[in-house]
Specification:
By secondary structure, the protein is an alpha/beta fold. It folds into three domains: 176 residues, FAD/NAD(P)-binding domain; 132 residues, FAD/NAD(P)-binding domain, CATH 3.50.50.60; 84 residues, FAD/NAD-linked reductase, C-terminal dimerisation domain (Enolase-like, domain 1). It is built from nine helices and 29 strands. It has a six-stranded mixed β-sheet with strand order 3-2-1-7-21-20, with helices on one face. A five-stranded parallel β-sheet has the order 9-16-10-11-12, covered by helices on one side. A five-stranded mixed β-sheet has the order 18-19-22-23-29, with no helix packed on it. Strand 18 and strand 19 form a beta hairpin. The longest helix is centred in the last third of the chain and has 15 residues. This is FAD-dependent oxidoreductase.
Amino acid sequence: MSADTDVQALRRQGRIVVVGASLAGLRAAETLRDKGFTGSLTMIGDEPYEPYDRPPLSKQALLGRARPEDTALPRRRDIDADWRLGVAAESLDRAAKQVRLANGDTVPYDRLLITTGTRARPWFHPEEAALDGVFGLRTRDDSARLHRKLTGGVSRVLVIGAGFTGSEVASACRELGLEVTVAERGPAPLVGALGGVVGAVAERLQRAHGVDLRCGVSVTALEGDDVGRLKRAHLSDGSAIDVEVAVVSLGALRNTEWLAGSGVAAGPRGIACDAGCRVFDVNGIVTDDIYAAGDVARSPHPLFDYQFLALEHWGNAVEQAEIAAHNMICAGPDRRPHLWLPMFWSSQFGVNIKSVGVPSLGDQLVVAQGALAEERFVAVYGYRGRVIAAASFDGAKWLGFYEQQIAAGAPFPPEYRTVDRRTETLHPVDPAFPDPHLPTHGATVTLTGHSPSERRVAFVPAHA
């Protein structure tokens, strides 16, 4: 039987299973049906809800402008799927080509797409995490619980971590009239994602809006009262603050634990796949029946030295899912690479922050439009002499231009005369990213290196 015959049979009567009832999972399923897949389609999700939109959960939902239950993703078309919701995938048997669920059921597949995404990193001490008043924010239920608490008469909130989600939560709290303390172990908010130069602007913005921002410190303990309610937080500088709510915003963990022992190249940094979304095994050999897309996937990108990128971006989840779906039901010559240019946006403290490219890869920075002091600007990042990224504060109209510059490998520093160039931008500066080996909060693009598996080799010098 030829490869073309196999593909046609798959399209007509194959079994495709999507693990992860997410944005990526839904868009992939819709694309499969759009491209003529008429076989069986099974959607597996650990939450009891059909796919919903996550960005509003830390913005409009916390402010009461949208109910979490109203965040269901719009459907492009009917996907005629068997929905298995409220039950998590527990293991993968590649030899038998089946997924085992937590309730003991097994689901066979001809093609498997993994879109399990991420979950919020929990507070490190389980007993403290269980205190009444300690929250994470990732799911619909998380947002609903936190909104009820914030509007239920509390006065002071502690946000642990000043990445994008933590900063958005702090912004929402201030808009609700609550006193907010933000503890960030890095030198400034957003420093892991945009660097210290831009982070200093985010710091001024938070302080100007009344946030008690404490950088360079960590929360060492959360203290409860006699009935298990949060009452106090202890910081690494020896201080303590009385708080009724603590929102833990320490970044995300990729949902890959269920793949342990499966032989798939999956670990804490995600699932390694090629540019066509095909998953690698632990030996670096590409599979032909397992694909990954969305936050859980990491794949090489030619614009960024073929580094494996793990992207926590809404747009990436959509684009990668569509590429994965296309490739799953195509013969080799018709497959396409996923070459989406990373883009991200955030709204906080009255400012619209957007980025394109991979700022954290940058080794130099210039402010090409506006001025840092005015909190309205476009910062352009360079890497080894070419434009690699741009980030804007209320300057998004320029980002389409810089998207073209990045894709074209335009030289850095920019050779053209920029509009309203100011004195502060005459010479490139170090963007001031923290040491990548030190943890910071909130990078939305992770450079994960070239190794497709999580195996490590210990090098022992001959003279040792």
